[in-house]
Amino acid sequence: MRDLIVQALEHSSADYTDIRVERRWRTEVVYQREHLHNASASSEVGGIARCLVGGGWGIAVFNSIDDLERKVEDAHRIAQIVSTKLPETVELAPVAPVQDEVRVSLQKDPRTVTLHEKQELLKSYNDILRTYSDSIVTTNARYTDSFQEISFANSAGTFIVEERPDVTLMLAATARDGEANIQTAFEQVGRAAGFEAAEGQEHKAQAAARRAVNLLAAKPARGGSYTVVLDPLLAGVFIHEAFGHLCEADFVFKNARLQEILQPGRTFGVKELNVLEDGYIPGLRGNAKYDDEGTPRRRIHLIRDGLLQGFMHSRETAARMGATPTGNARAISYRFPPIVRMRNTYIDRGNASFEQMLEGVQNGIYACAAFGGQTELEQFTFSAGYAYEIVDGTIGDMVREVVLTGNIFETLKNIDLIGNDLQIYGGAGGCGKSEQSPLPVTLGSPHVRIQNLTVGGRAQ
Amino acid sequence: MTSERHAADLLETVARQVDGAEVYELHSLELPVRFAFGELESLRSVETAGRALRLIKGGRLGFSTTTDLADEVTLLRNALESAEFGDAAPFQFPEEQPAADVACFDPQVEWLDEEKLIAMGEQIVEQIKAYDDQLQTEVSIHKSVQRVRLLNTSGLDVEYPRTGLAISIEVTRTREGDILVVYDSASSHRAEDIDASVLAEDIIRRLRWSERVVKAESRTMPVVFQRMGTAVPLLPLFSGLNGRQVFLGASPLAKELGEQAFDQRLTLVDDGRLDHASRSAPFDDEGVPTTQKPLIEGGLVRQFLYDLKTAGLAGAQPTGNGFKSGPSGGGFQRPPNVAPSTWLVTPGSQRVNEILEGLNEALLVEQVIGLGQGNVMAGEFSNNVSVGFLVRNGEIIGRVKNTMIAGNVYQLLRDQLIALGDEPSRVLGILHVPAIAVDGVGVASRG
């Protein structure tokens, strides 16, 4: 494989060429109610070649590695077409060539654990979900593992082989009361680790089932404006979706107006607000020693002491904005070129205790976990997985259908307290951007309190 | 590749060791082109191939996939391991049945080369720029030519080519204190169905209507869902009418077959044979001929969607809805699952203007954030209106911001339907739907 890649690079007459070849092993096990919906193992091999010619990118994707040289030629041909259409040519910020081999050692390499063992483990969780209560009508339990071995090489002399493991667990229960009251709750696990990360998660199955049943009796939230305390998971989803994506440089690097709004040094929140983007925290899903352009990982501040600090970059965006590449050029697989993506993104710990956050809140909402979130630039919405009323400084009844919405810039400024209890989560899904989804990432935060946040709801 | 074994040879090898088997093979040539910030960003040439093997052994189901067509040893070993303890197979692989002739290949798409695709994108960018040169325009154009091969040990042997052309446009208007994102997309098997200039023109129409921002009152009011907005009331029905969710007991419609669960003006057809529609094909991905059938007729629930497995479990007939991709994607790596074909809602008789003129005050909703979040299964929605307009007596007053709409789809489509528009739009490559006007939607606004 190495020889094939080196040879193809030597043959290329493009200004810059890189080749990424991926081998991947995956398994998936899915239970729905008492049915094993899927249990399968798959293998995949594929590659992508990128050529930069006259300042334009050409890209070729393929499964047949034997065709590598022909594919590099194809990428070259496309780059020539593209280069004639560009008003501004692409340049790449410098990254020192590197030769490295990054192997991982896992407690239980999922490739050596039998499918049967994985199925048995998931079945045990599914049984907990199913039998928790008569109100549980169905379940959805999913285990996945993936092991990637990525070879990356470029015409500047870089050759990296990196292994990336990933294990996820999703445990969902659906409870029902009568025809119309149907409630789902779930818990997730996601680690850059071996099979062991999926073991010992019985408490998660119990938590999901218990919550689904409890949600049946919860009342829908009343729409309006509230003081909202976000739990670390929902705050993490919030910072990733609503703010993190804005700090991906490919979002702003050609948009002068957005650059005015996102001016480094501008105040985005209270002095205690720090947002970090880190390429390596042991065991976390967003980890990669090198990104998919061969740039070594860095840890950067997006917000430092309340002030906007900087952006995440690829080599292309860094060159355009006069910055240094940050190791954020990532691709979900060989089928796609790397684009600017997050890795492990979180709000750093503050000083407030949870009790302090509740103090003096007459009529608030404590919103936890997330069903999902979506943003369109400054506008965001998030659905809490579950929530509680805050009444006169204490946690009250459970409420459901809590959807938070607002403007990111106003909302960041309305964060008035940041907790001292940072937690970082790697879910079972991942991040989506343009056509690339899901990419393993993590997100996190301590508890945070936000003033004057809009909650949508049917009951007015 | 010389070492690549043909699907038929693989099936023959496998057949000796199992009770039944199915090989699905997909070869794709794709050309995705992207424009960002009004400039050509990237062009990719994608040539991929993959194979999925599903088998039944000892009455149990096994599944595996690979992209390495030369390595059938690993593929077979993985599938057999999966079958050792797999779920009981409640079906047999089907024999080949006569299927309708469904148009899903267009040589015009096959002939589109890099230069032509780039020219299409440039034209869209120019059209938007001519309206306002301060806008940020992103365009994706995706051309594909695929060959699907499906064969099984019951004698089924199906092969067909299909083409695809998809365009999406996203335009961002950035002003201090107000960022507006408007997007649209279209997809088809056939090139002539994709009129990029019409798509761009409609985006410009929404931008024009958005010049003035107004505030809606927080209260319950009528909402007219139009174009992409119609996904709000229809998306939960993907789960509700899915035979698997019915069988599992999670669908609110589980006990409503033959019952009047919706307003009698509502008729919804799932059509797997609609010519050129991007989800149409002669067969589904299990070799069952696709069908055209009403799921809701005059408000009565008539039919749920089934693949082979779910039909077997539920004691129902497969409906030709076993697909390897759902509304949100998939691929040969996925086992077949219940998924909709194209959904057609029978139009009403009123034009959208007339419907709006008959309403004192209403929201016209065309695009939302947060689709599919929350308790979709129960039919609950709660969305931020990203492109929506306040309308008084038929007159567009302006665009609303920081506004949430919330309600329950099942309740709205049963008790609160005002009217259906007379002209269906193609939306998200899956819906052919007229405007849907309902009363009693919760609106909460701020700012």
Number of helices of chain A: 10
- First-to-last CA distance of chain A: 63 Å
Q: Structural class, from secondary structure content of chain A?
A: alpha+beta
| Unreliable residue stretches of chain A | none
User: The biggest beta sheet of chain A, please?
Assistant: 7 strands, mixed
Helix content percent band of chain A: 10-25%
- Beta percentage of chain A is 35-45%
Envelope shape of chain A: globular
Query: Tally of extended strands of chain A?
Result: 25
Greatest chain-chain contact: A-B, 88 and 86 residues
Total individual domains of chain B: 2
- Count of β-strands of chain B: 24
**Class derived from helix and strand content of chain B:** alpha+beta
Mean model confidence by pLDDT of chain B: 94
Please bin the fraction of helical residues of chain B.
10-25%
Plain-language structure description:
Chain A is of the alpha+beta class and 460 residues long. Chain A has two domains: 2-217, PmbA/TldD superfamily (PmbA/TldD fold, 2-Layer Sandwich), CATH 3.30.2290.10; 220-456, no CATH class. Chain A is 22% helix and 42% strand. Chain A is built from ten helices and 25 strands. Chain A has helices spanning 2-11, 68-83, 115-131, 202-217, 232-243, 249-252, 256-261, 315-321, 354-358, 408-413; strands at 16-32, 35-53, 56-62, 99-102, 136-154, 159-177, 181-191, 219-220, 224-230, 275-278, 299-304, 307-308, 329-330, 339-340, 344-347, 363-376, 379-391, 394-400, 403-407, 415-418, 423-425, 431-433, 436-439, 442-445, 448-456. In chain A, the strands form five sheets. In chain A, strands 1, 2, 3, 4, 5, 6 and 7 form a seven-stranded mixed sheet that branches. In chain A, strands 12-11-10-15-24-21 form a six-stranded mixed sheet, covered by helices on one side. A five-stranded mixed β-barrel of chain A has the order 9-16-17-19-25. In chain A, helix 3 (115-131) runs parallel beside helix 4 (202-217). Chain A is globular. The mean pLDDT of chain A is 95. Chain B folds into two domains: 7-207, 2-Layer Sandwich (PmbA/TldD fold); 212-447, no CATH class. Chain B is 21% helix and 40% strand. In chain B, the strands form five sheets. Chain B has a six-stranded antiparallel sheet. Chain B has a six-stranded mixed sheet with strand order 11-10-9-16-23-22, with no helix packed on it. In chain B, strands 8-17-18-20-24 form a five-stranded mixed beta barrel. The N and C termini of chain B lie far apart (63 Å). Chain B has 447 residues and is of the alpha+beta class. Chains A and B meet through strand 2, strand 3, helix 2, helix 3 and strand 7 of A and strand 1, strand 2, strand 3, helix 2 and helix 4 of B.
